Amino acid sequence: MSELILFQGDSITDAGRERAKDDRMGRGYATLVSAELGYKYAPRFSFLNRGIGGNRVVDVYARIKKDIINLKPDYMSLLVGVNDVWHEVAFQNGADTKKFSMIYDLILDELLEALPDLKIMILGPYVMEGEATRATEERPDKWDFFREGVAEKAEASRLAAEKHGLVYIPLQERFDEAQKRAPAIYWSLDGVHPTAPGHEVIARAWVEAFEKNFIK
Questions:
Q1: pTM for the structure as a whole
Q2: Is the separation of the CB atoms in 206 and 123 below 8 Å?
Q3: Phi first, then psi: what are they for 119, rounded to 5°?
Q4: Contact indicator for 2, 69 with CB cutoff of 8 Å
Q5: pLDDT 10s digit of each residue in the chain, 216 long?
Q6: Cβ–Cβ < 8 Å for 207, 36
Q7: What separation in angstroms does the CA of 28 have from each of 17, 131, 179, 196, 202?
Q8: Count of CB atoms within 10 A of residue 139's CB?
Q9: Extended strands (E) in the chain
Q10: From CA 4, how far away is CA 103, in angstroms rounded?
Q11: Treating both helix axes as pointing N-terminal to C-terminal, what angle do 171-178 and 196-214 enclose, rounded to 10 degrees?
């Protein structure tokens, strides 16, 4: 029986996956990771993507039973946080860092209680300057708000991973390094959603951490 890897998160993970067909996991890093690990370690792993566009940390918590616990994965990665900032900018419906940290801890506590053998990797949220994030005349503080807010959510994610003894992947560092080679627009369509090369940045960090920590 194969070991199940579950990808969980927001639109960066969703990446246009087909809801009714689990083998069509979208055009993002989940598909890239499943291709590499599926090829290298055939037939050890199977894969599911349950990312949902627009999700904040509270939305992931709301579906923890259906979309995580009931699936009984052996491994899971979670990438969430940018919408907790973005939704505050757009709809005044984000989550401050205190609430984000509290809900993140609840998610991890409940998962590890229900699935004590579950191996979890936490991906830190990231942001780049782009169409969705740069300052505007109406919102001159927009970029600063994004940058500072996402950095806070990334640190909260790191602390949650540390508290629970989990693997943490700092994606902001990866994208900062990538921007030394090419500008932000090369890696992200709008400052949040990755291009194909941007998804490859995430996939390489994901596979590197997974193999280092879980492949015997």
A1: 0.97
A2: yes
A3: -100, 125
A4: no
A5: 899 999 999 999 999 999 999 999 999 999 999 999 999 999 999 999 999 999 999 999 999 999 999 999 999 999 999 999 999 998 888 989 999 999 999 999 999 999 999 999 999 999 999 999 999 988 999 999 999 999 999 999 999 999 999 999 999 999 999 999 999 999 999 999 999 999 999 999 999 999 999 998
A6: yes
A7: 9, 20, 19, 7, 9
A8: 12
A9: 3-9, 45-49, 75-79, 119-124, 167-170
A10: 25
A11: 130
Please provide residue 76's backbone torsions phi and psi, each rounded to the nearest 5 degrees. Answer: -150, 140
Which structural domains are found in the chain, ordered by start?
3-214 (3.40.50.1110)
How many alpha carbons lie under 13 Å from residue 93 in its C-beta half-sphere? Answer: 8
Is the separation of the CB atoms in 71 and 6 below 8 Å?
yes
Computed on alpha carbons and rounded to an integer, the radius of gyration of the chain in Å comes to 16
